């Protein structure tokens, strides 16, 4: 793990740290992990649609989506944890920046890496599968956009709260169990809510699929809900449940501990 110091107070110094060699490696790690995550999640949905006549009505499709999320997120977080903190999600990055765990310039670079990775993953899926339709996240007809935003917010709250808990060194060394725990809660969230709001919990994944598919219906649901839910989770964990230690200004990992 990189031994970064706390972020300097001046904006120019913060920006300078955000373009340092260590920071650039962090952005690359976020790109690779987010690319792999989105490729697996969106690709598994495309695969199930290819193999099932009516995949939307088949309960096994829900299990496939949950397993893909759990396995892909666990792996993506694990391989990037000690380099970038393994955010793999703009909502996680937003929460870390809001809580002062990483600087705002660094968070913006993280967002750019994550969004670009999601778009590139969906483009590759479309090209390699001979222009097969790239599925997008949608809400069921029985739900309103407001209700879907609340649901996505609750799901992301659970995910981000788990990220904070799994990466807290005061809980003891978790090693690979931290990423596994994060993957488990993501899979459980998909099982609970995918038929209603899609169970995205990740604005980058929803954005990448929407860009490539050219469909932006209810896109705000997958930004507003997750960002609010992530913010509440971070504030609650850091200030109420378990006040945070000094943290790494690039990765958001607490000093002296292991990443998620």
List the helices and strands and how they pair.
Elements: H1 11-18, H2 21-51, H3 59-84, H4 90-98, H5 104-128, H6 145-166, H7 177-197, H8 203-213, H9 221-241
Helix pairs in contact: 1-5, 2-3, 2-5, 2-8, 3-7, 4-5, 4-9, 5-8, 6-7, 6-9
Notable characteristics:
260 residues; mainly alpha; 9 helices; globular
Task: Provide a descriptive summary of the structure in words.
By secondary structure, the chain is mostly helical. Helices cover 67% and strands 0% of the residues. The protein has nine helices and no strands. Helix 5 crosses helix 8 and helix 6 packs across helix 9. The radius of gyration is 18 Å and the shape is globular. The N terminus and C terminus are likely disordered.
Strand content: under 5%
Largest sheet: none
Overall pLDDT confidence: 86
Whole-angstrom Rg: 18 Å
Short note summarizing the structure:
It contains nine helices and no strands. It has helices at 11-18, 21-51, 59-84, 90-98, 104-128, 145-166, 177-197, 203-213, 221-241.
């Amino acid at each position: 793990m990189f031994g970064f110091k706390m972020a300097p107070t001046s904006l120019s110094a913060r920006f300078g740290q955000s373009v340092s060699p260590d920071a650039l490696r962090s952005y690359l790690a976020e790109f690779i992990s987010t690319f792999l995550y989105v490729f697996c999640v969106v690709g598994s949905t495309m695969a199930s649609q290819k193999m099932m006549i009516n995949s939307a009505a088949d309960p096994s499709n829900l299990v496939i989506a949950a397993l893909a999320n759990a396995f892909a997120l666990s792996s993506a977080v694990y391989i990037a944890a000690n380099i970038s903190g393994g955010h793999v999600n703009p909502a996680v990055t937003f929460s870390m920046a809001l809580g002062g765990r990483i600087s705002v310039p660094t968070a913006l670079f993280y967002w750019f890496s994550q969004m670009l990775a999601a778009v590139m993953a969906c483009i590759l899926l479309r090209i390699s599968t001979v222009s097969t339709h790239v599925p997008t996240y949608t809400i069921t007809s029985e739900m309103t956009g407001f209700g879907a935003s609340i649901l996505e917010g609750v799901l992301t709250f659970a995910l981000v709260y788990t990220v904070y808990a799994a990466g807290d060194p005061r809980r003891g060394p978790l090693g690979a169990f931290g990423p596994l725990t994060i993957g488990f809660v993501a899979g459980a969230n998909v099982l609970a809510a995918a038929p209603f709001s899609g169970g995205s919990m990740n604005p980058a994944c929803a954005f990448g699929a929407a860009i490539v598919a050219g469909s932006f219906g209810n896109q705000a649901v997958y930004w507003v809900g997750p960002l609010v839910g992530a913010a509440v989770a971070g504030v609650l964990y850091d200030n109420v449940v378990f006040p945070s230690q000094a943290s790494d200004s690039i990765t958001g990992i607490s000093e002296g501990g292991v990443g998620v």
